[in-house]
Amino acid sequence: MKQELIERLTRYAKIDTQSDPTSDTCPSTEGQWTLANMLVEELKAIGMEEVTVDENGYVMATLPANTDKEVPTIGFLAHMDTATDFTGANVHPQIVESYDGGDILLNKDLHIVLSPSDFPELSHYKGHTLITTDGTTLLGADNKAGIAEIMTAMEYLIKHPEIKHGKVRVAFTPDEEIGRGPHKFDVAAFGAKYAYTVDGGPLGELEYESFNAAQAKITFKGKNVHPGSAKGKMINSLKLAMEFHAHLPANEAPEHTEGYEGFYHLLSCQGDVEQTTLHYIIRDFDRGAFEARKATIEEIAAKLQEKYGNERIQIEMSDQYYNMREKIESVKEVVDIAYEAMKNLGIEPVIKPIRGGTDGSQLSYMGLPTPNIFTGGENFHGRYEYISVDNMVKAVNVIIEIVKLFEQKTTTE
Ligand SMILES: [Zn+2]
């Protein structure tokens, strides 16, 4: 199985599928079509049924049930695009067989080294087969490892019909890295009761909590007058903006928070005397605290409006996504089964909140509860990205075990 995973991931990695937030097509880039079409052919070749790609580049396929039991349909998803943070063109994956625990020379000419002194977690991988970059690109294991793992698990189930299972759906989706992954995802056509994104990091990761997220744009209007004759007349919008920001709690910012702590993050400030705009994102795991944060923004704005006039401060605030826990808690078996699958395979589940969003956060609110499971990768989105093939095998086994458990837990004929 290791060879198949290496072959698949390296083949997918060589296609540049970086997404592009400035494009308004879906997928946002042509390379994602190239990969989508390759995956369609491959799904057909391994024997999957109902293989489709829609006009927006969403690839779907079915592994039909091989039991008469009424097992709920479950799905597995991975995204085809790679991060915008670092180049994904001309990726040359390198294989490190039985890693010795020392420095890995990624690029001799450029002296780029992947070292346990910078990345102590490398010590967990002694003896593993690793796939790394050549130091000049990202690897794209986020999330092509997920695609390789789902594909390999489906092929295994097709070749082992003695493993009984319900209907399984798989989907490979575009533009996750630019936040659009689920925007055109056809939940009804997918037709699963539960799904899993296979898009996490190291071994054991199991995630079903994400931030609640909103953004706020606050515009301050000043009154510009020649500074020599401005006394009692000039209103400097930059100073209104600074006064606004000073009302926010200084410690509730990304650089001061971790774990379950929420924050206000000032993303950008643009302005001059006449007009200034502050752009914030607001994040919290707790829905009540999230609503309270938005109320705080509105209260500060109201206070300044009272002081300087309503017309001086305009506020536009909108929600972006919500904590999927709210949608998953009522169907907790979707998480419990993944937990049990890992335990059965001797993998210790690592449950932690995602300080961000996943496709699953949006999908869960679209009616498809979707926690996230590990791929086995580390250091996503940069030149030091790598993945353990040994742990990729474990991810494949977790997918197979989840499929088995759904069948075993169904008692209705
Ligand atoms: Zn990802």
Automatic annotation (TrEMBL):
Subcellular location(s) of the protein: Cytoplasm
Catalytic activity from the UniProt record: Release of the N-terminal residue from a tripeptide
Domain of life according to the entry: Bacteria
EC numbers: 3.4.11.4
Residue stretches making up the Peptidase M20 dimerisation domain: 208-310
Main EC class the enzyme belongs to: hydrolase
Keywords: Aminopeptidase, Cytoplasm, Hydrolase, Metal-binding, Metalloprotease, Protease, Zinc
GO cellular component: cytosol
Protein's name in the database: Peptidase T
